[in-house]
Amino acid sequence: MSSTDCTAEMASASSAPGERAVSVLWSFSKCLGALLPVYLAGYYGCSISVLLLALMVYMGWKHSRLEKLMRLKSAMYVLENEREFTTAKVFRSKGDLPPWVNFPDVEKVEWLNKILQQAWPFIGQYLEKLLVETIAPTIRASSIHLQTLSFTKVNLGDKALKIAGVKAHTEHDKRQVMLDLYVSYAGDVEINVEIKKYFCKAGVKGVQLHGKLRVILEPLIGDVPLVGAITMFFIRRPKLDINWTGLTNLLDIPGLNAMSDTMIMDAIASHLVLPNRLTIPLVSNLHVAQLRSPLPRGVVRIHLLEAENLTAKDTVIKGIIDGKSDPYAVMRVGTQVFTSHHVDSNLNPQWREMFEVIVHEVPGQELEVEVFDKDPDQDDFLGRVKVDLDIVKKARIVDDWFNLRDVPSGSVHLRLEWLSLLSSAERLSEVIQKNQNLTSRTTDPPSAAILAVYLDQAHALPMRKGNKDPSPMVQISVQDTTKESKTCYGTTNPSWEDAFTFFIQDPCKQDIDIQVKDDDRAFPLGNLSIPLSHLLSSSKLTMDQWFQLENSGLASKIYFKMVLRVLWLSDDATPTTPPRPSSFASGMGSGALTSEVNPMGPGGLSKTPPTRPQHATPDSDFATEGVLRLHLVEAQNLIAKDNFMGGMVKGKSDPYVKIRVAGNTFRSHTIKENLNPIWNELFEVILTQLPGQEIQFELFDKDIDQDDFLGRFKLSLRDIISAQCIDTWYTLNDVKSGRVHLVMEWLPRVTDVFRLEQVLQYQSQQSYQNKAVPSSAVLFVYVERAHGLPLKKNGKEPKTGAEVILKNVSHKTKIFERSTSPRWDEAFHFLVRDPRDEILIVKLSHSWGQSLGSVTLPLRQVLSEPGLLLDRWFNLDGALPESQILLRITLKILDTQLTCRRGEGDVSMEEVVPKWDPSHLDLKHRVGHSIAGENGGNVAGQVKLSIGYSTEESRLFITIHSCRNLAPCSKDGADPYVTFVLLPDKKATSKRRTATKKRDLNPEFNERFDFDFSLEESAQRKLDLSVKHNVSFISREKELIGKMQLDLDQIDIKTGVTQWYDLVAEVN
Predict the structure, then answer these.
(1) What pTM value is reported for the model?
(2) Which residues contact 842 (CB under 8 A, 6 or more apart)?
(3) Strand ranges (DSSP E) for 447-586?
C-alpha cells in the first residue's frame, strides 16, 4: 500500500467521529427547537389551544407546500415528455391533449421551442441585469425602508418557456396578423431578495404559468420592420402557481395562498388580461393609444331565460330522498361578472333576466355560464356551459338550450343578441323606443349606446397646500357608475393613458362628470361636466380635444377622447319581431308622442292625430297560445303504502296527483284508502307551443309526515298537439304497478261565434269533482300605449302602470317612467267561461296608487265584431277628455272535439277518440293500434336520438338522449346501454357505446358522440344501433333488447333532427 493511501485512510478515520458529533448536535438542536414553543407556552401561561392552532397552521402550510411541489414536478415532466403523453392510451381524452392535437388549425412550433431553449440562458442573463441594475435601484429609491434591498440570486433555471401551439387568424383584417400562442411554463426559476436592514429574506423557487396569449402585429407597413407595433394580452386569466421561499413561505398558509395568488393575478390582469393590453411600438409617429385601447368589437345582450332538469342538491336523509335546489347563475365574459337572483326549491327555474357585456376580441372571448345551488355555507355546483362569442357575432341571434357540463343532467336556455356599433345617431331614437318595449327582471334598462373614454393627460394642475406637487387621479362618472384612473405621483402634468367604457341608456338625457383629485380623494384639483348630447352633433360621434377644467388653475386643462357608439340589432336578425310600420317609425322623434292633439269629444276617435298609429302592432306570436284541457279520470292497481305490523298486513293508500306543466302546478284532492281511486277532476292551462315542453304527473300517498311516492310519468306536449285528443291509460314509472286514466285535449280555436252556443250547451252537461267549469273561450289582450294622461296632483308626469282584470284574475304591466304618453307593449291572456256575461276592465294608475282612468268593456261587444277582434283607441273614464289607450282585444272560441263528435248523437264513445296512441303508453292497454315497424318486427321500445352535422367543426354528431318502454329482460327489468356503428365501416373508430343504466326501462343517457367526417361522407353512412341488456358471461338472460337502422341520407343532417325511433325486437 502506498503512503498516499495510508494518509487518506487516516484522515477519513479521524473525520468520522467529527461528522457523527455534528450529526448528534444537529438532531439535538432540532428536538430542542420543536420543544421550545411548548416550554415558552407553559412559561408564559399560554393556553393549549394556541399550540394546537399553531400546529394546525403548520400542517396546513406543509401540505400546501408539498402539493405545490408535486404540481410543479408533474407539469415539468409532462412538458418534457409531451409526445409520450400524447400517444399514450390513458391520456387519450380531449382535455389532456395539447391544443395542436385537439384543433387542426393550431400548429405545433417545435422550431420556436428549440430557439427559446437555446436562448434561455441569455434571457436569464438579461433578466438578472435588468433586476440588479434597473429595478433594484428604483425600488430602493421609492422608500426609506427598502434602501438595503438587493437581489442575491437571479436564475431562470434550465426549463425554458414552451409554446404548445400557435393559431393564426388572417381572415378578419388584412392590415394585421393575429396569433394565439398557447403558452406553458413550468420552470425551476429561482429569485431571492434580501433586505439587510431587517434581516429579511424572501424569494421564489419554481413557477407554473399556462394560458392563451394573443399577439397582434399591426399595422402592417411597407417599410422595415414591416410591422408598426406588437400588442399582446391574455384573453382569459392564465393559470398561475408559485412556489415561495424564505419569508414568503407564509403565503403558502391555507387561506393566505389563495389570497396571494389572487392578488398576483390581479396585478397581471391589470396589465396583460383583456381589456388591458401591452403595446410595444416599433416605429415612430404611431398612435399607440388607439392600439392599446381600441374600440370594442361589439356588445352581447344576454337573456338568461330558464333552466330545466337541474341536479337536486338539497337532499334529505343523506341523499336517500331527493330534494330540490335553489339555483342561480353566474355569467363571465373576461373580467365582467354577473350574478342572477336565486330561485327557491326549483329544478326548472325561470330567471327571465337580461345582462349586457362588452366584447373586446372575437374570435377568442367566450361566455361562461355556471349554475350553483344557493346554500348557507358552500354553494353547490350545478354545471357550466361555454359559448364562443364569435358564433353569436356571425349568427346575430342565438336562442337555444345548452346542456350543462360536468353534471349528470341539466340544461339552460339562453338568448344571445349581438349588438353592432353604429357611428351615426340616425337610428338612436328607434333604438331607445325599442328598448322601452323590452321587459326583464333586472333593474337596469337596456342600453342604447356605449361611451368609450380615453383619458390621456392633464396640464398645469394646481399645487397642493404647502406648494407641494400633487399626485393626481381622475374619477369619471356617468349616472350611477363611477370609474377611477391610476394615480400619477408627484406631478402637475400627469399622463394617465387609461381607457374606460360606460353603458348609456339615453345620450340626450345623460352627462359625463370628470373630477380630478389628489390621491387621498379629499383635495380637488378641478372638475368638468359635459352633456353627452354634444357628442350627437360631433363628427362620427367623437370628441378628441383639450378641455378647460373648472374650479382649477387658469391654465389647467385636460385632454381626453370620447367616442359614442349606438347599439344596433339588425332587423334581418329578428324575424320574430317585425319592424314597426313606417307611420309609427317616422314619429319616433322628440315630441312625436306628446299631447299636441286636439281635444276630443265623447267618442271622438275620428280626431285622432295623424302622428299616432290607428292600430296596435303586436309581435307576430301574439294570440298564438293554445289551451290544454286535462281530465284526470281515475287510477288502478296503485301500491299500498299504509301497511301494518311492519308490512305483514297489507293496507291501502290515500292517493293524490300533482301535475306540472310550464311552471304551473295542479293538485287533485286526496281519496282516502283506495288503490283504485276515481278523481274525475278537470284542469286547464294556456300554453305556448315551444319545442321540448313536457307534462309531468306524480302520484303520492297522503301521510301525516312525509307523503309516499306512488309513481310518475311524463308526456310530450308535441305528441298531444299532434293527436288533438287522447283518451287512454298510462303506466306509472319507477313503481311495481299502477296506471292512470287521462283524457287530454289540445283545444282548437275558432272565430265562429255560432259554435259558442254548442260549446256552452255541452259544458253545462258536464260535472267534475273539483267543481271546475270548462272554459268556452280564451281572451287575448295587447296593451300597447296610452296618450294624453292627466298629470299628478303636484303637476309632475305620472309613473303609469296598467292593470287588466277579468273576474278574479288580474295582470299588471311594468311601470312606465314619467310620461303622459306611456308605452308598454305587453300581452296577456285569460280563460273565459261565458263571454256573454263577463266584463274586461283596464285600470291605469300612478305607481298603483292615484287613478288615471279606466276602460270597461263587456265581452259581448267583442262577440259582435268581425273575426271577434277589437283593435282601436279607447277613451278613458275618469280622466281628461283626450286621455285614451290603444288596445288589441281578440277572442277565440275553444271548439272541443268531444263536443263535435257527441253532438251528432249516433257516434259511439270509441269513435270519439282518434285512432292514435302515443309511443310512451303501456303496451298492454293499447287497443286497435299496432306500432310494429315496417319490417313487421315486434317493437321493444323506443330510442330518442339527435343527429346533425356541424359545418363549423366539420363533424357529424349523434346524441343518445333516452329510451322508453324497453322490454324487460329479467325480473328486475333490465340494465340497458346503447351501442351503435356507422356502416359500412365496422372499425373501432366508428363504434360507440353509452354508459349502463341499472334497473331502468326508461333510461336517460344524454351522451354525445362526434365523428370527423365530411358532409358527403356522413350522408353515405348507415346508423346501426342496438339497445342491449348488460349481462354477465354465464347468464342466460337475453342480451339484445331491440335494434334499429337508419340511412343518414334520408334525413337532413345539415339542419339536424331530433326524434323518437322504434326499436325492433329480435325474432326467434
Answers:
(1) 0.47
(2) 781, 783, 802, 803, 804, 805, 854, 855, 857, 874, 885, 887
(3) 449-459, 472-478, 481-484, 495-504, 511-518, 524-531, 542-548, 557-568
